[in-house]
Specification:
Elements lengths: L1 H9 L4 E7 L8 E2 L3 E2 L13 E5 L3 H5 L3 E4 L13 E5 H7 L9 E4 L2 E9 L14 E5 L11 E6 L5 H15 L6
Parallel strand pairs: 4-9, 6-8
Antiparallel strand pairs: 1-10, 2-4, 3-7, 5-8, 6-9, 7-8
Helix pairs in contact: 1-4
Length: 180
């Protein structure tokens, strides 16, 4: 469903980028403890990073730059090895003296390999410091509450109201029972 929704919304006139996320960008979302495999003793004093479930197009759609490694990819699906991307704040906090790429992080009892580092984005308003964050492919996580946000970057001069109506039509065509 998510892949088809992204494809159809991206084809609408005015769309410059489309992503789906379990939290919208200014929603602090979930947090959880993590452990870097091999450094378990250090984790007791670590803050819980923000956990973000996103489609691979999230970073490009929101303009979050890649700092190291790679972004999430379409191939990071349910049958692929579990991966995650961290933000710069997480790199500074959890990997101050080592390269995080290739390191394994245990989250909810499962290990995931760090494949990339992205720039920071604000989750708690414009004045709050950016917390450490980890990004998991939406395709590799169970649906938590069923709610997702469709994030769209429009081309300059596009009409947001007309685009919103077209987006609603796409969702209704895919699933007329889905609440918006």
């Amino acid at each position: 469903f998510n892949g088809e929704l992204e494809r159809r919304v991206a084809a609408l006139p005015g769309a410059a980028g489309v992503a789906i996320a379990a939290n919208h960008p200014v929603d602090a979302g979930w947090s959880s403890s993590i452990v870097v495999v091999g450094r378990e003793a250090e984790a007791a004093d670590w803050p819980e990073p923000s956990i973000r479930f996103v489609t691979p197009s999230y970073f490009e759609t929101l303009g979050v730059p890649l700092a190291a490694g790679r972004r999430l990819e379409q191939t990071d699906g349910v049958d692929a090895p579990p991966v995650l991307v961290i933000n710069e704040a997480a790199r500074r906090r959890f990997f101050p003296a080592q390269d995080p790429i290739g390191q394994r992080i245990r989250l909810w009892g499962a290990e995931r390999r760090v494949v990339g580092v992205v720039g920071n984005e604000r989750f708690n308003g414009l004045m709050a410091a950016t917390p450490p964050a980890v990004y998991l492919p939406l395709a590799q996580v169970p649906v938590m509450n069923g709610g997702h946000s469709v994030l769209v970057r429009l081309r300059a001069g596009s009409d947001p109201t007309a685009f919103t109506l077209a987006l609603r039509r796409v969702v209704t065509e895919l699933d007329p029972e889905l609440p918006l």
